[in-house]
Amino acid sequence: MKRSELARRLRDVAYLEGDFVLRSGKRSSFYLDKYRFATRPDVLEPLGRALAAAATEVAPEAVRLAGPELGAVPLVTAASLAGELPFVIVRSAAKDYGTAQQIEGSFTAGEAVCLLEDVVTTGGAALEAIGALRKAGLVCKHAVCVVDRQQGGAAAFEGAGVELRPLYTIDEIRDA
Q1: Please, which pLDDT band fits residue 53 given cuts at 50, 70 and 90?
Q2: Hey, which of 10, 14, 26, 80 would disulfide with 87, CB 3.0 to 4.6 Å?
Q3: Phi/psi of residue 146, nearest 5 degrees
Q4: For residue 24, what pLDDT is reported?
């Protein structure tokens, strides 16, 4: 699927206008509903291919992918299948039962991972996930997101020593 066609699909299925409160607490007149694109096979499958390709390009040293719960799990799963790289899931906090892990899946400390994220506004949730990965001994210097809302996220990633590569900016989605 062409890049422009995928952008149109994202816009058509997930771009909403109205009055929204974002995770950051900021209000916005638009919202990109990740669940509307991550739950549709006709969008998720090409997104998985695009994310896998971008991760390979930006982080060729990565031996696995990582995705924060809950929104990025379908994306990292699709990218893992497309790119044949294993992945881990980063919980927002360690669970208090079973293995009591914050990072789910097999990994070895010292491995390089590429974080995948859905929509980046300020980068808060993704940077928390990167902190958890690093605390577990993984090396995370690169991240790929589906859409960068261009509201400070890229600068926040840079400040944490992480290169953020968006598949699209919000302007590209609006103009699709």
Answers
A1: very high
A2: 80
A3: -70, -50
A4: 81
CB 95 within 8 Å of CB 101: yes
Tell me which residue of 34, 43, 39, 33 sits closest to 1, measured CA to CA: 43
What one-letter code names the amino acid at 52? Answer: A
| Six token digits for residue 16 | 């909403």
- What confidence score (pLDDT) does residue 48 get? 98
CA-CA distance, 131 to 75, in Å (whole number)? 20
For residues 167 and 173, is the Cβ–Cβ distance under 8 A? no
Exposure of 60 by Cβ count < 10 A (0-12 exposed, 13-18 middle, 19+ buried)?
A: exposed
Cβ contacts of residue 175 below 8 Å, gap of 6+? none
d(CA 17, CA 66): 30
pLDDT at 97: 83
